[in-house]
């Protein structure tokens, strides 16, 4: 051990930081695997046969399932999900109740993103009055959103800061399916370029490589510093003892 003397403080720092860096690397690998599984399930559900609103409610895992609807929008009760951005622009997402005539059930359909650059002017949108055939898919959020305030605006269209389907049905005075349906691109949709994940699996792999590289660099510096300190200590001892053979 005389050839390796890193010192107490560097040793404590490495013992504290190295496990964290390694853990972060493995955590990113795990996140990447979760994203791959998520995308695989999304692809499989998109290729499967469409479900009906009743089948959505009875399904244990309805996320990403395709849905075909036929009916009309409720133009009197529109929800505007605030603070949604696209390409650096601020806007809202438009959610409206839709009555599916085939199942006689109400569903909450997200028609997509609408720009809202000037808060002094209400966002512009229209609601088709005629019967429609729609293609949508079930969106299930990965977790509970962080909510700044539970206060709800008055009047219609109603501005909301998070999606709570059950509360929205209560406000609209209706009973319906408790999942959000996101409209696929089409004549009745606004901007419907839905992102399944905020980061691709390859991005998580890149971050994992960075964390592992930092851990390797820290360990290499620790070894270099320990060897260098031992050599300096040995050199100082030789200079202080000139009679030493």
Describe this structure in words.
This protein is an alpha+beta fold. The chain has a domain at 65-183. The chain is 38% helix and 22% strand. The chain has a 5-stranded mixed β-barrel with strand order 1-3-4-7-5. The chain is elongated, with a radius of gyration of 29 Å. The protein starts with 7 loop residues before the first helix and ends in a 5-residue tail after the last helix. 19% of the residues are buried. The model has no long low-confidence stretch (mean pLDDT 85).
Shape label:
elongated
Number of helices: 4
Instruction: Write down the Rg.
Output: 29 Å
Strand content: 15-25%
Order of helices and strands: HHEEEEEEHEH
- Percent in helix: 25-40%
Poorly predicted tracts of residues: none
**What is the β-strand count?**
7
Terminal Cα separation, in Å?
Answer: 21 Å
Structural class: alpha+beta
Strand order of the biggest β-sheet: 1-3-4-7-5
Largest sheet properties:
5 strands, mixed, barrel
Mean pLDDT: 85
Offer a quick outline of the entry.
The protein has 245 residues and is of the alpha+beta class.
Secondary-structure blueprint:
Layout lengths: L7 H40 L5 H6 L7 E8 L5 E8 L2 E12 L4 E11 L16 E8 L18 E3 L4 H8 L7 E4 L17 H40 L5
Parallel strand pairs: 2-6, 4-7
Antiparallel strand pairs: 1-3, 1-5, 2-3, 3-4, 5-7
Annotation keywords:
245 residues; alpha+beta; 5-stranded mixed barrel; 4 helices; 7 strands; 22% strand; elongated
